[in-house]
Amino acid sequence: MNLTGAKEQLFNAELREQLDAWVAKYPTGKAQSAVIPCLHILQAANEGWLAKPVMNALADYLAIPAISVYEVATFYTMFDLKPVGKHKINVCTNISCLLNGSDEVVAHLEDRLNIKLGETTEDGQYTLRQVECLGACCGAPMMQLDRDYHEHLTNDKIDHILAGLKS
Ligand code: FES
Questions:
Q1: Domain range spanning residue 61?
Q2: Which in 8, 73, 78, 93 has the greatest CB count within 10 A?
Q3: C-alpha of residue 125 to centroid of ligand 1, in Å
Q4: Rounded to the nearest whole angstrom, what is the distance from the C-alpha of residue 137 to the centroid of ligand 1?
């Protein structure tokens, strides 16, 4: 796959190698199947979020319509379309977590971070969000911090997790 100009700046050689490795896992002409892992790679390389030029460049790179990238990026809460904090905190508020105290988890995090759901702390360290079931219902209430799940949350446990991030 060939890139020119701005796209070369968006996708350096190291990124292209990573993208190509995923594209190679699928049959010729089925590059669209690699959209999700490619978006993960590009999001990680772009401060945790996906700007429109990056998504457009991926569509060009995979030779698929831009809408095929947008529809994936906008569907999953694991992809962010605007700037986010260094750490993403996703609190599940779906039924199992709700019945086991997710309201208290949200309230405690909002209090500790001094932000509301959907906001990012002024220092750019944390973005706090509400998400649907993350498939860890037996550990309710739970949250995802970056790529890690934390289950059976209590206020003390949350404080301990946040303290660990700062140290
Ligand atoms: S309801 Fe929270 S992980 Fe499933």
A1: 6-73
A2: 73
A3: 25
A4: 4
